[in-house]
Write a structure and sequence with these properties.
The protein is mostly helical. The protein has helices at about 20-30, 45-65, 65-80.
Length: about 80
């Protein structure tokens, strides 16, 4: 008797993830290790990450710097993780 296929344990479609953007996040976070502890961001509350993300977005709107946008995305992801 053939075995029944297992249900997909991860139903999300990871082909939808913008992997180039994920790489940018990894680059920003790796670069931050020059000045910050590896897991220091985990000690901050979600509200702080959201506040810092908003600051980076505001700076992005003012000066159009992709660097600010990259940092805003990192902070938003950190907020989701905390």
């Amino acid at each position: 008797m053939p075995k029944k296929p297992l249900a997909n344990p991860i139903p999300e479609d990871f082909s939808l993830v913008p992997w180039a953007a994920v790489q940018i996040v990894a680059e920003v976070m790796t670069d931050a290790l020059k000045d910050h502890d590896r897991d220091g961001w985990r000690k901050l509350p979600r509200r702080e990450h959201v506040s810092r993300a908003a600051r980076h977005l505001a700076l992005y709107f003012v000066n159009g710097s992709d660097e600010e946008l990259r940092h805003a995305v990192c902070r938003a992801l950190m907020a989701l993780e905390t």
